[in-house]
Amino acid sequence: MRAVCPIGTYSFASITQNFTVLRRFSQNQALVLKAVDEMWSQFSPLLDV
Fold first, then answer.
1. pTM check: above 0.85
2. Which domain, by its residues, includes 47?
3. Which residues contact 30 (CB under 8 A, 6 or more apart)?
4. Over the chain, what HEC string results?
């Protein structure tokens, strides 16, 4: 597997698809971070941090 792929191998459709997946992933990541933050705020008094 080559480390560097020429940009010509990527079609515009695959780029936009990857961008959509990436954007959806970042939204999910924000939700996960928010949930973890809420859990941490609930459990941190128990851990006496």
1. no
2. 22-49
3. none
4. CCCCCCHHHCCHHHHHHHHHHHHHHHHHHHHHHHHHHHHHHHHHHHHCC
